[in-house]
Model the fold of this input.
Amino acid sequence: MTSTDNRRILLPPYTEEEVVSILEDWGRTCAPSRFMVYGVEDDPAIGHDGDILAWGLASYDHVYVHALDSTGGGTFASVDSMRRIMFRPDRDIRVLWIDPQPEN
Done:
């Protein structure tokens, strides 16, 4: 339902058990995949250093990213678009998938 469409979809009357079953099945089969965004830098003075920059959830059609600094994060079409928009192109930004990547 969008903000311009305030109609509710009428569904057949379900029992509480049926609603719980539907939602739990959906949760098991459609859960987003978790990932971590981190950066690696080569500092001539101290060698290599790195930071965890954000945590994310990815579904088949978008990703949600929560940044650990003041950038805040947001919702993006893909991990690649998140990397281009949130981070400098000269920084080595990497993604570690904790769960399998969602299929398109």
